[in-house]
Amino acid sequence: MQKARRHPALRALSAAPLLTFLSPMTVAAQDTAHTGRRHISVVYDSPEQPDHREIYESVRQRHVLERVAAAFGLVRLPRRLTYRFKECSGEPNAWYDPRTHSVTVCYELIASILRLAPNTTSPAGVTREDAVRGPVVQILFHESSHALLDLLRIPVLGREEDAADQVASLVLLHLAPADARAVVNGSAYFFATLGKHEAIDRGSFADAHSLSWQRFYNLACLAYGSDKRHYGYIVEKDYLPAARAKTCEEEYKQIALAFQTLIVPHLRVSPGHGERLRRAFGKPSAAR
Predict the structure, then answer these.
(1) Helix 107-116 and helix 53-61: axis angle, to 10°?
(2) Sorted alphabetically, which keywords does the UniProt record give (predicted)?
(3) Is 226 helix (H, G, I), strand (E, B) or coil?
């Protein structure tokens, strides 16, 4: 079971802007729904805590899990994968469980993201909306990546948590250009904010996850390496050291090659869009 580290809680804020780039669908959401993909289902557990009710209603009405499942449903999976939002007894967490083949995100984790998000646009230009949707998308993509690595039996050299971050980053960079940039900025804000509050001791280096600042720089590097023009501000504003930036294009190409070799062959091929999807996953969204 892959579990994320506990995230710090600051102060309660509204869930209203949650994932607004995933526009609501006209059909009413149900507590349990099938995405139309035979091997993926989604579940929204009704929370007991009143503070989580607005989060539950927001993600449910916007069909957040259905949309993430639809993206990863483009991969042929050998068995059913379940996405679930639920309460976790106060634990702000998210994980993929290989025993039940399920991705779980806790309402407590969404609440902690809302508490960390700025009330107004940050000095770096990150809006509150981006600071919420960015990490929510990144976390869902990260745990979905764990699922792909497990279900497709993808060999991993190095730490699986780093590999899941890399797959998630590659996929989110293929969102529509404006959405990809917003998710990158919001996720980077989240990692940087966690890094500022992260106590570093010997145990921190034993954790399966990289430190928050490392995840910040890795994401920034892959974004810049995917398209130096579209993400040039990352270096111009000194968010990424010039010494690291020199290798980012090669880092991106290395991960893209691994994705092309190990995951793209498992994409569903259907008339009219199969090859387009294969080509798309070979280039970052900004280059389309």
Answers:
(1) 100
(2) Signal
(3) helix
Q: Which element (helix H / strand E) includes 216? A: helix 212-226
For the cut 60, the answer to whether the pLDDT of residue 30 exceeds it is no
- Comparing C-alpha atoms, which of 119, 121, 117 is closest to residue 192? 117
What's the number of CA atoms in the CB half-sphere (13 Å) around residue 287?
A: 14
- When pLDDT is averaged across residues 74-83 and rounded to a whole number, the result is 94
Q: In this structure, what are the phi and psi dihedrals at residue 124, rounded to the nearest 5 degrees? A: -85, 0
Contact by Cβ (8 Å): 75, 149? no
Domain count for the chain: 1
Does residue 77 contact residue 98 with C-beta atoms inside 8 Å? Answer: no
Q: Choose between 203 and 38: higher pLDDT.
A: 203
Looking at residue 249, its pLDDT comes to: 97
94-104 average pLDDT score = 97
Distance CA 178, CA 20 (A): 13
d(CA 188, CA 237): 14
User: Tokens standing for 215?
Assistant: 């995840």
Q: What torsion do the CA atoms of 229, 167, 209, 112 make, to the nearest 10 degrees? A: 80
Is the pLDDT at 188 greater than 70? The verdict is: yes
Q: pTM of whole model > 0.90?
A: no
Per-residue model confidence (pLDDT) at position 26 = 25
C-alpha distances out from residue 189 to 34, 39, 83, 123, 243, Å: 33, 34, 25, 11, 21
What's the first-to-final CA gap in the chain, in angstroms? 36
- 137 and 82 Cβ atoms separated by less than 8 Å: no
99: containing domain = 2-287
Q: How far apart are CA 202 and CA 217, in angstroms?
A: 21
